[in-house]
Amino acid sequence: MEISTHFFNMHFTISIMLVCSKFRICHARDTITKDTPLYSNETIISAGNIFELGFFTGQVDDNRNGSFVGIWYYKLQPRTIVWVANRDQPQSLDSKQVVFIGEDNNLHFTDKFTRRNFTRSSNTTAKLLDTGNLVLIDGQSGKIWWQSFKHPTDTFLPGMKMTAELELTSWIELSRPGTGIYKFKLDEDEKLYVIKKKR
Ligand SMILES: *[C@@H]1O[C@H](CO)[C@@H](O)[C@H](O)[C@H]1NC(C)=O
Ligand SMILES: *[C@@H]1O[C@H](CO)[C@@H](O)[C@H](O)[C@H]1NC(C)=O
Ligand SMILES: *[C@@H]1O[C@H](CO)[C@@H](O)[C@H](O)[C@H]1NC(C)=O
Ligand SMILES: *[C@@H]1O[C@H](CO)[C@@H](O)[C@H](O)[C@H]1NC(C)=O
């Protein structure tokens, strides 16, 4: 009797420990708020561990690498980047970088960041969804101000809309995220989606 109770307790304790450690693994945040900016030593991960947003190094030109902010599939190797925030504004690798929500409620990416006391007039949160969409949400109304799905880079993801405004533009090269010369968009005359080379 005593043994079985002891076994039960032990089993119970182990189960709790497993739940806790699982919880800790799953606990990575999926938001950037005014109080919690994102530094280059961290990433955010969508709630279901599908997508990750963070900093990555890419080639700027033949002699220079720079820092970019992007979204890629969580833990997928090789890393598959589906969106780049600053493809034509790379930051220097030497500087300390941070993505934060500014007083203007927009998302900023900079190397000149000083933490300030924000007015609490509004409460915007950037959230990375399991679809790969990064949304800027108004904390009070829940309204979506902005979303990366409406500003794609070179990748079409399920959930995006194929509208007349949709435009995907290639990277310059495999290792250079900057705006390249191939565009995927709707051809006005033909009513077809086409891939065009920029002249
Ligand atoms: C990341 O860097 C920031 C700023 O340099 C620092 O405050 C923070 O503790 C660091 N976080 C981790 C997890 O190392
Ligand atoms: C840029 O980064 C790549 C990959 O990390 C590396 O192989 C290359 O040598 C770097 N180039 C420069 C100019 O630092
Ligand atoms: C921010 O607010 C706190 C508490 O109100 C205050 O102690 C601190 O000095 C303020 N910091 C700045 C940079 O204004
Ligand atoms: C800000 O919004 C988040 C959700 O986006 C909510 O959890 C939090 O309580 C809000 N804070 C304030 C001060 O309104």
From TrEMBL:
<keyword id="KW-0472">Membrane</keyword>
<dbReference type="Pfam" id="PF01453">
    <property type="entry name" value="B_lectin"/>
</dbReference>
<feature type="domain" description="Bulb-type lectin">
    <location>
        <begin position="29"/>
        <end position="149"/>
    </location>
</feature>
<keyword id="KW-0812">Transmembrane</keyword>
<keyword id="KW-0675">Receptor</keyword>
<feature type="signal peptide">
    <location>
        <begin position="1"/>
        <end position="28"/>
    </location>
</feature>
<keyword id="KW-0732">Signal</keyword>
<protein>
    <submittedName>
        <fullName>Transmembrane signal receptor</fullName>
    </submittedName>
</protein>
<dbReference type="InterPro" id="IPR036426">
    <property type="entry name" value="Bulb-type_lectin_dom_sf"/>
</dbReference>
<keyword id="KW-0325">Glycoprotein</keyword>
<dbReference type="InterPro" id="IPR001480">
    <property type="entry name" value="Bulb-type_lectin_dom"/>
</dbReference>
